[in-house]
Amino acid sequence: MNNYDIFIIGAGPIGLACGIAAKNAGLSYVIVDKGCLTNSLYNYPANMTFFSTSEKLEIGNVPFMSLNAKPNRQEAIEYYRRVVQLHQLNIRLFEAIETTNRVGDGSFEVQTTKKRYKTKNIIVATGFYDIPVLMGVPGEALPKVLHYYNDPHFYAFQKILVVGANNSAVDVALETWRKGAQVTMVVRSEEIGQRVKYWARPDIVNRIQEGSIKAYFNTTMNSITSNTVNINTPEGIVEIENDFVLAMTGYQPSFALLEQLGIELSNDSIRQPSYNPETMETNQSHIYLAGVVCGGMNTHKWFIENSRVHADMIVKNISGQS
Fold first, then answer.
1. 48, 148, 159, 291: least surrounded by Cβ within 10 Å?
2. Exposed/middle/buried for residue 80 (C-beta within 10 Å: 0-12, 13-18, 19+)
3. What are 49-64's pLDDT values in tens digits?
């Protein structure tokens, strides 16, 4: 059995930062991820640009040099891979968590799809991009309905329905429209989201106002068929011819994993995990949270730039308890 001081779940930027902090403190650790390195970033749209500047995405005192004012997905993937190489981090990829159990001495045994580990502490740094928030409408399981988006060329000259009004939805609408798609947006609220990137929001508003992109506000999805969609508008149900539905309805943390670990969640729609904001330790001793997973469904609260500090906070607390 592999024995470690810290078992880190998630090989995204914050999980990597936790590994660096553990290594700097002289603690043994392993970082395990069910997917590839920085799996969430890898699954971002090919043309995605970060809101943050490159220096705010840096970890481990490794400079992040970008050719642009705002770095893109490919630059970030290259950067974090270089961080792993420079720090020679101990990582296990494509290895999912199956069970976790606390044993008699207070430590944990973790069984993955490949190995069994024993650890004194667990850090959950899993992010939230792996599990989409479903619309819950008939026809959502059809192949034409997608919750992830990669390259706009695939949708050229197709009839696209985009569900949502925040950054992902706006990027999809603009990029596919520029590749010749006929784009319609379905927006639950009365306007495009205020959190949309400052350079993209005026663009989408102007495209809607001029009629290049059709938008239905105060509207929700009703049902989906192979060739159409039905939406609930303030004027009643409207049927639209359609080839693809891109449901940019957001994503959520793995609440099943948090519950498996015994972490308490709030009873409201946010499902806020319980943790001490000074140490990041949860209601379960020696289990910690790091990164965006701390926000529950409030996925706009934590980002790489403001949660990098979690790594040092956690390792400092673990070192003090040793």
1. 148
2. buried
3. 887 889 989 999 999 9
